[in-house]
Amino acid sequence: MGLKPVGTGIYPARVLLTSTNGLDTRVVDLELTAQTMTQQFELLFECATRQAITQEVPLVNTGDSYMAVTATLGGAKAFSGPREVSVPPGATVPYALTFKPPTPGEHRGTLELSIPSTGERNTYNLLGKAAEPVAEAHVVVEAQARGKPVTRSIAVPNIVGQPCEYQVMCDLSCVAGAETIKVTGSQATTYKLTVAPMRSGVLCGTLTFKAGEGQSVWYSIEVRASEPPEVGVIKVEAAVHRATAINIPVVNPLDHEVTLTCHYSDPIALLGPTTLTLPPKSETQGAPTQLEFYYAPLEFGPAQGSVSLISDELGEFWYQLDMNALPAAPRMLPPMNAELGARAKTTVVVSNPMDRPVTLTASVSGPGARAFGATPSMIPLGPYGEAEVEVWYRPVGLGGTDAARVVVGARDVGSWEWDVLGTPESPSLQEGLSLATAVGTTSQAVTHWRNPFPAPALARITLTGSGADTGELALALQQQQQRSSASGTGTAQQGSGTVVERLVSPGASLTLPVVFCPRQLHAASAELAVTVVEPVDPSQPQSYVAEEEDDGTLERASGPAPATVVWRYPVTGVAEAGQVVVTRGSTATGG
């Protein structure tokens, strides 16, 4: 008979033997054992130093009695496991093989599992790879920079298993302690360290305890240092968009050059160098080096800030700044003069002190704001960009000086203010009209008059002079005005020339066409005039005076009579000779 086992173990069987004549029958119970005398396997382990990982090796018993398994470990001491395991009948029991490396690197060993009852042996070649050890703990220490030192105790375990001495190393300059520590037993030993940071911030490092044969235990250290007490308080004032200089004396106590890093709490309002280099003490004889920076506020009101000086050698020093931004007095623009109906202008420059784009808004306020304007009203500026704003003056009446205030700004950058004065002047002689045409033909020229007043104005248009008297120069408004006389305007002949009246809305323009039709070769001249009695603005309060009538009663009458304003345009017409046509020996002049 033959046996084809599916695995190692004991296979019970029963054989029935019967003779051919059926007279003899026998039963035979068999117990067959299948085993592999020697097999080899490989196991790989990976973990950090002093960390333990376990691999379970299954032990299968297919028999009906307990199976004893003996384990033999060889090689590195990093591997461990039980020496004997008993497996119940028909059960599977894991063999727990543990890898706990004491040092970084590769660790090799062997495990032999043998079954004495069957003589079977399985051999495992073991390879363990140990990485650097992880931190034993994370230690957090809170302290004040340049303040009172803080002491912290750490329990250091004995990783060697016998008395030893650790070498202590730390990569943070603000941490101090004994250079060595002795551990005598299996209990942890207390190590005291002192933390005295020189600058604020979060400092991270390591504290390592090294024993012989490459063994070590280490801790991660986190120092949370708050800022030190201020050296002093500096009070400073400045007007908005003005700069005030601040000087701080700094002394170098060392015999070599030191560079300090300068930090400002408000990089927009506080402007200064980012570093300050201090010469050696031997060169300065103790004389201080001045740190000069500027306070240039953008917004009105008090504020608090600071300036810090930091270096690895000297630590951190800072001064508290009590800042007060005063309202800036508006700047005065040069006075502007402009004729009524004309416009004068000047420009101002605005800048963006921010490192990001802003949009400024321009506005005009004050009693004379209607006569002034700022263009454009919206000014987009890129980071640290500049732009020009045009400030213009267009008087709305004759009389006193107009005054206004121009404000350009935005919420983030504050505002710039300018005061401006404008003086209105009576119109001078305007640009004239020149016409030229052949005798007997007609030409036309056009000019425009704009109502500069804030109220509707009744314009009286006249064309006078020799050219108007002869009718060669005439207003083309006449027929149009006659058709619209129902609206309260009309055309009349008064003495010499033509008179036309028209009501013009505020800011509206009136077109004034003049035609020239010469009758002979000569030059004709005339004067076009627009006369307006300054209208009363109903939106403005009026002044009145009390006058006594003949009967003794008091009557409220208006103040000074409104001014009469005249715009004059010289008009010149030149007659030209017509084309000469020769027909059958005769000469004629065509119109």
Automatic annotation (TrEMBL):
GO biological process: cilium assembly
Domain of life: Eukaryota
InterPro entries named in the record: Ig-like_fold
GO CC terms of this entry: cilium
Residue span of region Disordered: 478-497, 537-559
UniProt-recorded name of the protein: Abnormal spindle-like microcephaly-associated protein ASH domain-containing protein
Organism of derivation: Chlamydomonas leiostraca
